Amino acid sequence: MSTRPKQDRAEHSLPEGDRTTPGQEVSYAPGPASPPALSESQFAMFELLRWVRLLWSRRHLIIGATLAVAMCFGIRDKFFSVKMYRAQAVITPVDPDASLAGSLGIGGLNSGAGAGNGIASLLNLGGQNDNTMIAQQYIAIMTSFAFTSELMNRYHLERKIVPVESGPGARLTRWAIHERISSRFQAEYDYKSGNLLLYFIDSDPGEGAEILGFYLASLREKVRAEQIGSAAAAAASLQDEIRKTSDALLQNELYELVARQIEREKIAQVEGDFAFKVIEPPVVPDQIFAPRARRDATLAASIVFVLSCALVLGFDFVRRARAQMELIERARSMPPALLPEPPAEPPSSPSPVIPGRAARPSARR
User: Fold this and answer.
1) Residue 14 and residue 362: Cα distance in Å, rounded?
2) Residue among 333, 124, 354 at smallest CA distance from 230
């Protein structure tokens, strides 16, 4: 049985040049270190830096395309586009029933008793509606097809807004003309002040203000006609009730209501500020409403800049994907003998190194 020390067996297992003398220390050198693996955040940072570098290398193309498009839009809007102006007017909606009731001095009819008060409450002679509801009603009237058709029939707006086109097949329908006219009209209600803001866009400032005046006049006439018709119908209904009743007291109250309805009809015909009060008549500011060259050029430049960056990154992605596919196809077409060998695994234990001697790889057995 062998009684050699372990140190002698270790020396015999080493190559001839690496054997140590008794009492000499043995140290071990680690094998080749593998590159550290990147975390997801580090990989994302490297990819972002690569994209920035790629965009910076194409900066001349991106900036050139952005400036070219911005200049084209600015020159087009400044010198070749039709200038549009926006006329504006400010009105305060007034409840027609409340206005007539105030003019007649019958605001307290609902406080009394009797059949006349009940009829007056049904006729809504003393009620006051919210200005918001009235303003929304006026907006609905002015944007309706019937109102626009009435404007076209009375003032022939289609000749001023829509160019006359020859040929029966090229003529626009009344609905198409209504849409074109309505697209130039705008109405907004200011909840703080209670005013109704009206706008009309046209290439001629004078015609824009004139057409907006047509809107105001037609709105007043329409609401006035409705109130006159309502008062006339109420008076006729009351007179019919007078003929049917035999109560003298009730007949006197009905006669009084008929007189007030007739007076209401006359006041509606002659009142100047009926239905609304004009705070600011139609006026056109000096600045151009559309097109806005600076805004359009900035918007177009922003879009082109983003699209240019996206195209550069997209082309780079396609190029890298095609290169990867070519490598995969080339590897598939190679014979197995020509395929590169996989890297050898690192040794399980470090190699001993003798102080004062250079480390060398161990010889294969």
Assistant:
1) 8
2) 124
Q: Output the six-digit token pair for 25.
A: 């220390």
Query: Does any domain span residue 275?
Result: yes
Instruction: Let me know whether 132 and 70 are in one domain.
Output: no
Strand, coil or helix: 189: strand
SS3 84: strand
What are the angstrom distances between the C-alpha of 163 and each of 156, 172, 177, 311?
12, 10, 10, 42
DSSP letters spanning 118-184: HHHHHHTSS----HHHHHHHHHHHHTSHHHHHHHHHHH-HHHHHSPP--SGGGPPPHHHHHHHHHHH
Residues spanned by the domain of 304: 57-81+291-331
0.90 surpassed by pTM: no
Pair (181, 89) in one structural domain:
yes
pLDDT tens digits, 118-173: 444 444 444 334 788 999 999 999 999 999 999 988 988 877 777 644 444 457 78
CA distance 211 to 200: 8
The stretches in the chain having pLDDT less than 70 are 1-36, 97-129, 163-170, 270, 272, 336-365
The answer to whether residue 246 is domain-embedded is yes
How many Cα atoms within 13 Å fall on the side-chain side of residue 132?
3
Residue of 287, 87, 85, 88 lying closest to 196 (CA atoms): 88
- Which residue type is seen at 169? G
Exposed, middle or buried, 17 (CB in 10 Å: 0-12/13-18/19+)?
A: exposed
